[in-house]
Amino acid sequence: MARPIDILKRYFGYESFRPGQEEVIDTLLEGRDCLAIMPTGAGKSICFQVPALLLPGITLIVSPLISLMKDQVDSLVNQQIPATYINSQCSFDEAKQRFAAIRAGRIKLVYVSPERLQNEFFSSFMQTMPIAMLIIDEAHCVSQWGHDFRPSYCAVKEWLARLPRRPVVGAFTATATEKVKADMMNLLGLQNERVFIGGFDRPNLYFRVVSPADKTMFILAYLQRHKQDSGIIYAATRKEVERLYGELRRRGVRVGKYHAGMSDEARRKAQDDFTYDNVDVMVATNAFGMGIDKSNVRFVIHYQMPKNLESYYQEAGRAGRDGGPGECILLFSRQDIMIQKYLIEMSVQDPQQQDKEFHMLQRMVQYCEGRHCLRRYILTYFGEEPSWQRCEKCGNCDQETVEEDRTFEVRNICQCVDELKGRFGLTMVCDILKGSQNAKVKRYGFQNKSSFGLLQTYSGPEIRDMVKQAVEDGYLEQSEGKYPVLSLTASGRDVLAGNCQVVQARVVAPPEAEIDLPKRQVKKKASVIDEDALRPLFDALRARRYELAQREHIPPFVIFSDATLWEMAAQKPLSLEAMAQIKGVGDFKLNKYGNQFIHVIESYIQNQR
């Protein structure tokens, strides 16, 4: 009998599993239910596709989006894995042929939407078939506390109960709170399940928060430097998507747009254009969410701050799914906070849920405004405790800083907060310290406070940064909710009493025109490869991949990922034996495409002589 590692090498072209994959696969093969919470890009699909090829009978995958089904089935069929999907886009004849193929045992993986489980004919048909596994993809959709609630997922448990023989059940999602995790286990009817929570770190992603004076000009400058890369730009509203899309298109960018206000057909075409590399950049709202299986996304830019870290990390995680380098940039301004508060007020009516949303928004703001290691902040938010304090490979860790004695400033900040008795927030504290004569300060008589104007020699933004740093350093505490207020901590009272010195790191910021990301590098085992030197051969390999994809009517990344092409460019294999050692080149793809890519490499080498 074939082993999981044999299937992985033969069909998928990898010599070893990614962390966490093998344990999930072994659990499913043992006939035991499982819940796997693994970040975007961790290789969740492999976890059920490998056992599906080893177990007798069929594997049924419940997937929320038609586009996701199509991409995954296209990729599997391209690797000569017998897979199909049944959804509303299938014609009567197509559906008839697919049911016949399933009945004849020619199909191993069947993708359907959760709504399909409520179809009487489908249910009756599946009750006659040997179902080895039922896989629930994007399983967080079962919970109203998740961010993609789909009521049809609640039909899974009842559907399972009607089967003559219960299959193994696997539930997969990228992120989940404790509440969502409990809902998934209960509402999906998991039994004697094992729960796997994979490491959330994505070492190939570079995170940065930038506050440019003009966000659009920043994006235009960034795209000018990354003309050949595929990426996503997320905006908070449809209006902003339309404006930004129009601006980029006028500047000659190969750009598409996607939001819920577009027709189904327009959205389908937009996603296809992006998937098939007909456009380089997609400007979208978060409606462009689940179902993006495109592996060669090199950057994700958030034009505005998302409402919570769960959404941000899932969206940003669409960069670098092939294991290659990805850049995740969040363009932040204070106005973003007001936009997200407004959207929460308009979309969430339940007071308890609204308070929860405001709390998560506050954590998102802290991510944007803090000087902490961005990667560490994300990981601790999701319950991990990294062994390091600084990752040295995010925007904050890369910043040049100098240490300064800020005892005087922090003591004055603590004095102001103490005088306000925990009744006001950051804006009022800053106004008082600046010595502002605005109406609100005068209404409460705060111009008579002893702390009034104590930091008037500093600019408003400088005072705000110092107060936020005092919160981050633990001298102040900020409450939760829609209107957070500030209060002193025990450490803050020590500063106020003159019992300790405060040393803070000040960022030495480069001119805005110089703000850019480090030169992208491609990692190969222990070495690092210079992308600039490999770019000409990579482009030639990519052009051949695009030609083949056009001919076969499949997305280019289905043939080979960018990471695989970069490794080809670095290793320059000139035989099928050498090509077989490239990560991502399985037996079927080697026989189907190997010689064509070898010819590109041979031509390139000859032209270099």
From TrEMBL:
Domain (Helicase ATP-binding) ranges: 25-194
A GO MF term: DNA binding
Helicase C-terminal domain ranges (all copies): 214-364
Stored InterPro entries: DEAD/DEAH_box_helicase_dom, DNA/RNA_helicase_DEAH_CS, DNA_helicase_ATP-dep_RecQ, DNA_helicase_ATP-dep_RecQ_bac, Helicase_ATP-bd, Helicase_C-like, HRDC-like_sf, HRDC_dom
GO biological process terms on file: DNA recombination; DNA repair; DNA replication; SOS response
UniProt xrefs under CDD domains: DEXHc_RecQ, SF2_C_RecQ
SMART domains: DEXDc, HELICc, HRDC, RQC
Entry's EC annotation: 5.6.2.4
Keywords annotated in UniProt: ATP-binding, DNA damage, DNA recombination, DNA repair, DNA-binding, Helicase, Hydrolase, Isomerase, Metal-binding, Nucleotide-binding, Zinc
Reaction(s) the record says it catalyses: Couples ATP hydrolysis with the unwinding of duplex DNA by translocating in the 3'-5' direction
Cofactor: Zn(2+); Mg(2+)
HRDC domain location: 531-609
GO CC, any one term: bacterial nucleoid
Membership in a protein family: Belongs to the helicase family. RecQ subfamily.
PANTHER family attached to this UniProt entry: ATP-DEPENDENT DNA HELICASE Q1 (PTHR13710:SF105), DNA HELICASE RECQ FAMILY MEMBER (PTHR13710)
Protein's recorded name: DNA helicase RecQ
Organism placement in taxonomy: Bacteria, Bacillati, Bacillota, Negativicutes, Veillonellales
Gene designation: recQ
